[in-house]
């Protein structure tokens, strides 16, 4: 190669090099370029917290996995069995996290194998701070070590909380763990549990697969039994999560917290509303009850496959409230194939008539379509421009309109 050609090459390559930002990329930007490709529909599964809190143990998790397989939940799409807070023991001499030996005597790896053997996936919980919300060791300063441990244990899902984080920056804290999970070499769904304080919907799209938008759900329809400021009854969660509909999509979901269906604080009508509204908001459907001992009403709600199909629709759009008049509301979710899911929701104490028009659904006035009631499981008269239904107090009518 002549000196002139070499010189020309040096200028071209050199100039190119300088045009690349060398140190400009933050961890967050690096992670943003590598979404993990998971959770293309909202994650479904079970989590121990809402029912068992810190009383979780390996028998409960095994019994739940068995029941998820035998009750039909697994086949209906509930996939992840997630142990929430309080599974942890101390860190060992090398800083590796261990399990609480009294509650999990067989160890987490054995439990994960058990869950996998039932055709399910396994999830676990940690925290970006020094301590978890339940006072167990958090992952701060051990992010890569913990991600490696989870990968060795066969973990498929990590819920990552935000207690004891002091003045830590949430975007940085979650980007760090996202990078650690990615570096572990295992596909792990990343569930951001920051309660919406730092507005993760604005920055977490390629960091996590779902992000909590609110404080903790209370097993209550309105504020009657609210015990703490950070607890929200169903109606409050709805109003906090609804305006964020634009930020959800395949791989990145708004998470209005786990389901309370079957935990006893609401009536069957209210639980049906809870499940319907979570489905129309394309929320993760993470059951939070005692699956091994659930009654028939609970089972019929959690296993309503027509409502689940609305949640899991491939288009991945979060539905929203298109009309409200006092306690009466109309919610619409666009589905694939030009269909729409509708929820007619009555917050009030008296039965109410609620209607939906073509305009509210984004349809031309004369359009004809099939109309199906997703709780009665029956076809109604055909849609030809409007629908009016009677809705019970605190209840819903849920429909699918299929052109
Ligand atoms: C926080 C979370 C809950 C649960 C508990 C565990 O409150 O928001 O979902 O994980 O911590 O301590």
What does this structure look like?
This protein has 13 helices and 20 strands. Helix 7 links the parallel strand 5 and strand 6. With 403 residues, it is an alpha/beta fold. The strands form 5 sheets. It has an 8-stranded parallel β-sheet. A 6-stranded antiparallel β-sheet has the order 13-14-15-20-17-18, with helices on one face. It has a two-stranded antiparallel sheet with strand order 3-4. The chain starts with a helix and ends with a strand. It binds alpha-D-galactopyranose (GLA). Alpha-D-galactopyranose is lined by residues 49, 84-85, 132-134, 161, 193, 216.
Question: Layout of helices and strands, plus pairs?
Answer:
Layout: H1 3-19, H2 27-32, E1 44-47, H3 49-52, H4 58-70, H5 73-76, E2 80-82, E3 88-91, E4 97-99, H6 108-117, E5 121-127, H7 143-153, E6 157-161, H8 170-183, E7 189-192, E8 210-212, E9 216-217, E10 231-232, H9 234-241, E11 253-255, H10 268-280, E12 285-287, H11 296-302, H12 305-311, E13 320-325, E14 328-334, E15 340-346, E16 352-357, H13 358-361, E17 370-373, E18 378-379, E19 386-391, E20 396-402
Parallel strand pairs: 1-2, 1-12, 2-5, 5-6, 6-7, 7-8, 8-11, 9-10
Antiparallel strand pairs: 3-4, 13-14, 14-15, 15-20, 16-19, 17-18, 17-20
This protein binds alpha-D-galactopyranose.
């Amino acid at each position: 190669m002549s000196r002139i050609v070499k010189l020309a090459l040096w200028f071209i390559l050199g100039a190119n090099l300088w045009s690349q930002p060398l140190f400009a990329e933050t961890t967050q930007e690096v992670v943003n370029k590598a979404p993990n490709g998971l959770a293309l529909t909202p994650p479904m599964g079970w989590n121990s917290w809402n029912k068992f809190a810190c009383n979780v143990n390996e028998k409960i998790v095994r019994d739940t996995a068995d029941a998820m397989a035998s009750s039909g939940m697994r086949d209906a799409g509930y996939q992840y069995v997630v142990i929430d807070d309080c599974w942890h023991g101390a860190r060992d001499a090398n800083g590796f996290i261990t399990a609480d030996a009294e509650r999990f005597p067989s160890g987490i790896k054995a439990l994960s194998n058990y869950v996998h053997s039932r055709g399910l996936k396994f999830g676990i919980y940690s925290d970006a701070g020094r301590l978890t919300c339940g006072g167990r060791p958090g992952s701060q300063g051990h992010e890569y070590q913990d991600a490696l441990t989870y990968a060795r244990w066969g973990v498929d899902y990590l819920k990552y909380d935000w207690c004891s984080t002091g003045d830590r920056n949430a975007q940085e804290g979650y980007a760090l763990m996202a990078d650690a999970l990615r570096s572990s070499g295992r596909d792990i769904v990343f569930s951001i549990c920051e309660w919406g304080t730092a507005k993760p919907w604005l920055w977490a799209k390629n960091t996590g697969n779902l992000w909590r938008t609110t404080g903790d759900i209370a097993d209550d329809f309105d504020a009657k039994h609210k015990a703490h400021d950070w607890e929200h009854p169903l109606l409050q969660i709805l109003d906090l999560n609804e305006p964020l509909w634009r930020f959800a999509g395949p791989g990145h979901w708004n998470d209005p917290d786990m389901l309370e269906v079957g935990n006893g604080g609401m009536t069957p009508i209210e639980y049906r509303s809870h499940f319907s509204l979570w489905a129309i908001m394309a929320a993760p459907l993470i059951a939070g009850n005692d699956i091994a001992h659930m009654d028939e009403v609970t089972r019929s709600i959690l296993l309503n496959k027509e409502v689940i199909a609305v949640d899991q629709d491939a288009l991945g759009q979060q539905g929203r409230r298109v009309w409200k008049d006092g306690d009466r509301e109309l919610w619409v979710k666009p589905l694939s194939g030009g269909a729409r899911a509708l929820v007619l929701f009555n917050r009030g104490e008296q039965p109410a008539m609620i209607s939906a028009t073509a305009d509210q659904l984004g349809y031309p006035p004369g359009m004809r379509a099939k109309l199906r009631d997703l709780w009665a499981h029956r076809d109604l008269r055909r849609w030809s421009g409007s629908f009016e239904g009677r809705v019970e107090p605190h209840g819903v009518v849920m429909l699918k309109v299929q052109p």
